[in-house]
Amino acid sequence: MPSSKTRIAIIGGGVAGLVVARHTAAKLDSYSLTLFEQTDQVGGTWIYTDETDIDKHGLPIHSSMYKNLRTNLPREVMQIPDFPMKHNEGPSFVHHSVIREYLWDYAKHFNLYPHIKLNTVVKHVEPDTLPNGQTIWMITYEDLESKIETTKTFDAVVVCNGHYTVGHVPHIPGIESFPGGTIHSHQYRIPEVYARKKVCILGASWSGMDIAIEVSQYAEKVYLSHNLPESVDLKMLENVEQRPGIQSIQGNIFIFRDGSTAEVDNFIYCTGYKFTYPFMSTKVEMRTDDNHVEPTYKHLIHMDYQNLFIMGLPGIVIPFPLFHLQAQYILSILEGQIKLPSTEQMREEYEMEKKALLDLGIPLRHIAKLKERQWAYYDEIAAAANIPSFPPVIRKIYDHVDQMRELDLTTYKNYQYRIIDDENFALCYCKPC
Ligand code: FAD
């Protein structure tokens, strides 16, 4: 007899996949659930490895963690709302291994492992239409140990494959002539290898700045090259010099856009990542050009299929709590509590929103970077799913961290935040780690 349960497939066992699994697993009367994870552990990008190339199965290394990375959000903001992080002494910006342990605890606590297929890569996702017009999904996956390939049918698919693995590498004229070592931040692990070197880092977003700070402790000189309108405040780092973008390279001489030059031994691209969905059928429209994914509604729902969801699209957000809301929003859609507009209406609404942002001068690749808009987004999807959004204290801490980061990028992680109540927090200075 066919099952009356909604069969949900989750692709990827990082935090996004685990959070969707947690909420689905709480309703096993209504759902059956399979989470596919290609590696042998859950945790996604938080599983640090020294490796930078391929894994034991020949798949590209997924994680972009580097050895000394501490979080850029305090744990009080970063944690999943229904699973607070253990409070330890010391700064709120914890080492990545603390997050890995936390995610493993989360998976255990909510008894998710019975639903998880580890060492299982999703190779293909194909839509099919039933006589009643309903779309179902045929998922082909390979057990990487036995090499056996299987295809199974699901009623809904939640794509949680992460998007910090495939580096965006802009072409720089003359790069072929550079004799030194070149990596993307995806492959960066430790700063010691840059001892006494002259290093150029291209890009001053999160990883560019963080890696510049680390590498400067060992390198003779760091050139932080970027196109930001103003210099980044890197107090005390006397051997870090900021330069505009790179115009060209001739051998080991880098020529910057202001005409200045520098001799460079090593080059690190910190130029961001690309969204990729290599398993998706060509029948499913998935545009990822200009680092922007379409056609998606509310940064989550594929506009042609109301049972295909893509997690992790918004940038400059608080990812773990965001996933917590999005997961419940998805279930409310599948359960019919949220009625989505027709495909045409969704496209119309989306195009209007997109035009308004483009008219404000925001480039297409930045329109999903929610930043100030994130709080309204959380409130909107929480209200639609009839669940609480975040208390004001979360935004207050987030904004405070932003100010501290602006004041001094090299010391903002030395503080401990404590939530007192929904409105208030306390702050104390800890000794640098
Ligand atoms: P991922 O963690 O990337 O997980 C995706 C999973 O999908 C992986 O386990 C992968 O193996 C699996 N997968 C992919 N393709 C397939 C397939 N075909 N079949 C089966 N499995 C597949 N966020 C913060 O909140 N705070 C921070 O301090 C912070 N620092 C960061 C530092 C770095 C260097 C990076 C790269 C990111 C950082 N982030 C931070 C953002 C972080 O990516 C998100 O917080 C979050 O971990 C993303 O989770 P995810 O589940 O979307 O993706």
Task: Note down, in words, how this protein is organized.
The protein starts with 5 loop residues before the first strand and ends with a strand. By secondary structure, the protein is an alpha/beta fold. α1 (15-25) packs across α5 (319-334) and α5 runs parallel beside α7 (374-385). It has a 5-stranded parallel sheet, covered by helices on one side. The protein has a 5-stranded parallel sheet with strand order 8-15-9-10-11, with helices on one face. The chain has helices at 15-25, 75-78, 96-109, 206-216, 319-334, 343-359, 374-385, 392-407; strands at 6-11, 31-36, 116-117, 120-129, 135-143, 149-154, 156-159, 181-184, 198-202, 221-225, 240-243, 246-250, 253-256, 261-263, 266-269, 296-297, 301-302, 308-310, 415-419, 425-429. The protein is 23% helix and 22% strand. The protein is globular and about 65 Å long. It is built from 8 helices and 20 strands. The mean pLDDT is 96. The chain binds flavin-adenine dinucleotide. Flavin-adenine dinucleotide (FAD) binds at residues 11-17, 36-39, 44-46, 62, 64-65, 69, 71-73, 78, 121-122, 160-162, 164, 207, 279, 311-312, 319-320. Flavin-adenine dinucleotide is lined by residues 11-17, 36-39, 44-46, 62, 64-65, 69, 71-73, 78, 121-122, 160-162, 164, 207, 279, 311-312, 319-320.
